[in-house]
Write a structure and sequence with these properties.
162 residues, tt1808, chain A, 3-stranded mixed beta sheet, 27% strand
Length: 162
């Protein structure tokens, strides 16, 4: 896996900060983590491979339970609450196709595909192991079921700053 650009990192950092601020304001015991938690994947023969999402939102309890073990959410554990992938040229097909299918099978309730290449955010909401999606661009306000009080436009997220 290649390292993303500085812009890629800025978008990830911005999203994590916005989620953390929203969680703190609401007093919700969840965490938003940048590339620190793996998610066991249903791909491969032995189901022993993992994805490392750009941003993972999970309960604080689940995060704390990983203190003395590998930071991977296993197939027998509750899925993350939300995952964000920031698209780069090398991950574009995976972010839109295979990850979307895998995250649906894993029953991750909300999946964001943040695509600086085409300047849009695709918000995927789980419905019976498949995602319905809504696209946001420019000054569209992002409407997240997981973060209903978030007040961000697609342009702000894609720029990585307010």
């Amino acid at each position: 896996m290649s390292v993303g650009t500085g812009k890629h990192g800025a978008v990830i950092r911005f999203i994590v900060r916005q989620f953390e601020d929203a969680l703190a304001q609401a007093g919700i015991p969840w965490v938003s983590l940048p590339g620190l938690v793996g998610v066991r994947s249903p791909r491969g023969r032995n189901w022993d491979t993992s994805r490392l999402p750009d941003v993972t939102v999970l309960t604080l309890t689940q995060w704390e339970a990983m203190a003395d073990r590998e930071a991977i959410i296993n197939l027998n554990e509750p899925p993350p609450l939300l995952i964000v992938e920031v698209v780069s040229p090398s991950t574009q097909a995976d972010d839109y196709r295979s990850k979307r299918a895998e995250y649906g099978l894993l029953e991750i309730p909300e999946y964001w595909i943040v695509d600086p290449i085409v300047q849009k955010i695709t918000l995927c909401i789980l419905d019976h192991e498949f995602y319905d999606s809504i696209e946001f661009q420019g000054n569209d306000w992002i409407q997240s079921p997981t973060f209903p009080n978030l007040t961000l436009t697609a342009a702000q997220v894609l720029a990585g700053k307010l």
